[in-house]
Amino acid sequence: MGMCFLRGWKGVLGRKLFVFATILFAASIVYFYIDIPLKLNTGVTEEGPTYNDIYTYDETTTIENKPVQRFDKPFNKSSNDVIVFVHIQKTAGTTFEKFLVRYQQSLPCKCQAHKKRCNCGRNASNETWLFSRYSTGWVCGLHADFTELVVNSCVERVLDKQAGHKKKRNYFYTTFLRNPTDRFISEFRHVQRGATWISSKHVCDGRPASVNDLPTCFDPRIGWEGVSLEEFISCPYNLAFNRQTRMLSNLSLVGCYEHLRKPSYEQDKIMMDSAKMNLRNMAFFGIKERMDDSQFYFENTFDMKFSRKMSVWGKSKSNDTVLTESQLAYIQNVNKLDWELYEYAVKLFDERVSLLRQKQRMRG
Ligand SMILES: *[C@@H]1O[C@H](CO)[C@@H](O)[C@H](O)[C@H]1NC(C)=O
Ligand SMILES: *[C@@H]1O[C@H](CO)[C@@H](O)[C@H](O)[C@H]1NC(C)=O
Ligand SMILES: *[C@@H]1O[C@H](CO)[C@@H](O)[C@H](O)[C@H]1NC(C)=O
Ligand SMILES: *[C@@H]1O[C@H](CO)[C@@H](O)[C@H](O)[C@H]1NC(C)=O
Ligand SMILES: *[C@@H]1O[C@H](CO)[C@@H](O)[C@H](O)[C@H]1NC(C)=O
């Protein structure tokens, strides 16, 4: 079996893994010091973007010419518009999802006490306007990523099935991002407490990833609870590395999970490009470090108001993981793609928020 059980480091498998990890480590050091800039055209003009620039795809900037979705029109509550949330682990996604179903009055969901999920069906058709954990549930798999939801058309398939027939809808994709180092540490601590997300399917190219495609870092029968940081960061198949970039990119472009076995600069660049394009095509994305602005951005994009402040609700638990300088540098380095995506995202976020503020001032 192609699994790497880090708990039992012995044998040929352990040595092979060690060699692999060493090579990966050496490669990442080289990568770090050469510091190949993955700078791409950001698609934003000097004057700043116009409303359409933001919501439409600029074809000079990316490798792919097909926009995921154009947003010529605002979200229409009574039409076939659906908000889809791409929930990346440890990014405040749960807070946002709770707010969508519980503290939002413009298009209220019907929630019952002691029930996790709410009914966000439209009055007339009872068809949902929200695809998320607390409305539809994890119908496309636990923490399904962009590749599963969009590239493999899971959202469309599920909603067609619920409606009983094929139907044209406008999908408004949304997500949340977070400072990659903080997110990584938060994921580590969550795994240490016992989470594994082992039931995620990682569908790509029409099929779930096999153990061969995607070896686990731990014995699935035992889990990874209590893992040390050293162990956590030395498994090359750890999906926590650059999770945000991977979960937002079209993995069909890079042979699905091949990059975990054979890291390559070319594939990183394609993945990066794809994640940025998909992010640009999102109707909304929040930034965990900027909760108030995220709330403003969401409310004004969808014309929905929350009755509470996300920034008050979404405070994360105290961080008591003490890291050395070199551990921090290592973590930053193995999340290099996420750092590039995050810096890009914050810039784009600032532009979108200031544009919305301008529009709000103009309306008076
Ligand atoms: C929203 O969709 C409904 C039904 O398709 C339509 O009647 C209405 O005019 C639309 N509203 C706007 C603002 O486009
Ligand atoms: C649906 O019906 C409820 C109660 O009848 C009403 O409060 C709500 O505003 C309606 N929602 C929409 C989107 O029409
Ligand atoms: C509306 O759909 C939900 C599931 O999304 C279901 O539980 C509920 O019974 C439906 N209501 C009606 C009136 O069909
Ligand atoms: C993803 O990439 C594949 C392979 O190039 C392409 O056929 C497909 O259209 C892409 N899908 C999306 C949603 O970008
Ligand atoms: C918690 O995290 C913040 C930001 O990442 C950092 O500045 C602070 O020193 C950390 N606190 C502890 C106790 O590790």
UniProtKB/TrEMBL annotation:
Any one GO BP annotation for this protein: positive regulation of multicellular organism growth
Primary location recorded for the protein, binned into one broad class: membrane
Domain of life: Eukaryota
Enzyme superclass (EC): transferase
Compartments in which it is found: Membrane
EC number(s) per entry: 2.8.2.-
Membrane topology field: Single-pass type II membrane protein
SUPFAM superfamilies on file: P-loop containing nucleoside triphosphate hydrolases
Transmembrane spans: 12-34
GO CC annotation: membrane
GO MF term list: heparan sulfate 6-sulfotransferase activity
Catalytic activity: alpha-D-glucosaminyl-[heparan sulfate](n) + 3'-phosphoadenylyl sulfate = 6-sulfo-alpha-D-glucosaminyl-[heparan sulfate](n) + adenosine 3',5'-bisphosphate + H(+)
Record keywords, A-Z: Glycoprotein, Membrane, Signal-anchor, Transferase, Transmembrane, Transmembrane helix
Role noted for this protein: 6-O-sulfation enzyme which catalyzes the transfer of sulfate from 3'-phosphoadenosine 5'-phosphosulfate (PAPS) to position 6 of the N-sulfoglucosamine residue (GlcNS) of heparan sulfate.
Family according to the record: Belongs to the sulfotransferase 6 family.
Protein known as: Heparan-sulfate 6-O-sulfotransferase
